[in-house]
């Protein structure tokens, strides 16, 4: 049994999530603590700048350093709030910030300087979780499925675990051991965030208030849902900016745009069911989207079975991805699989991640 730390900076660019777990890298996992360190607006803008101009290497280098130092800060805060010493923790799983993800070109880039994080924290760091999977013919994403399946081990199946972050991803867990299917569903909150930011300067549609006062433009929604991605069978995964919707939404009010994009996220989840081996008896939702009552209510009515936030099972829906990379870091150290043909399309179960040892610093 090991104590592991996981760090995640997700596609919604809202901050660093840091989680501590105790795990055997198999079926045992216990949450020990969680911290989130929100990014100030100015840094979020700089991150957006890198997403828009990933080839500006001077900017990328600068932002990577700041990003990594913010992660080191999150580590210190989590150690302080859990009362743990760094010597108690075997390693940090450091996901980094996805800047670009293009599985068709076998490219995925998670920004983050593992050597700097190791120096700053005095801890071993496992990083670069996605490359090995891509080299084995996989999408390099999603990687949360094995962790979702472990969390769901005692729950009635088939079950769907849905993450609504910047992008949406789902894990279908079937009744037999190892029965699992996963893929990115479509947009999560990123398109809504971008729209709301452009139209009102706010960072998100807090509690779905704009969407609740808007009307879905069904013609625009149909056009958005006619994107070929939704007809492609899994394995499949997305970049934060895979869907370009600005032109579709031209002329819509802030409220109607928010309502239509919220319905787009929901419609994409509904379409995901087409690929499940059998219908889930229940959906458990994690990620920031579960805080949006308009999204949750529409999911409930469209999916027709129980849709609940993962808190209904006592999980922390904000911590799950950071916990996942703590869990995967241990599996990486032990040479175990991080992904399967049915979760990323890799040709075989593949391990992955690279270890940066503190002694090397
Ligand atoms: N109260 C709320 N009302 C509406 N939306 C919310 C609320 N709280 C969070 N969100 C949404 O959740 C998003 C953050 O979700 P989360 O932290 O799960 O994303 P992420 O981990 O960065 O993304 P990914 O899982 O794609 O890597 C915010 O950008 C916002 O859009
Ligand atoms: C390339 C990348 O960073 N993808 C993220 C993104 O955010 C959600 C979805 O798209 C998922 O595929 C993935 O994150 C989680 C942690 C995953 O790998 O499971």
What would you note in describing this structure?
This protein has 361 residues and is α/β, with parallel strands linked by helices. It is built from 13 helices and twelve strands. It folds into two domains: 2-141 and 318-360, ATPase, nucleotide binding domain (Nucleotidyltransferase, domain 5, 2-Layer Sandwich); 145-313, Nucleotidyltransferase, domain 5 (2-Layer Sandwich). It has helices at 41-52, 57-82, 114-121, 131-135, 145-151, 190-200, 209-212, 218-225, 246-249, 254-272, 293-303, 320-333, 341-344, and strands spanning 2-9, 15-23, 29-38, 91-102, 107-111, 125-127, 159-164, 167-173, 180-187, 282-286, 306-309, 354-356. The strands form two sheets. Strands 1, 2, 3, 4, 5, 6 and 12 form a seven-stranded mixed β-sheet that branches. A five-stranded mixed β-sheet has the order 9-8-7-10-11, with helices on both faces. It is globular and about 60 Å long. The two termini are 26 Å apart. The protein binds adenosine-5'-triphosphate and the ligand CC(=O)N[C@H]1[C@@H]2OC[C@@H](O2)[C@@H](O)[C@@H]1O[C@H](C)C(=O)O.
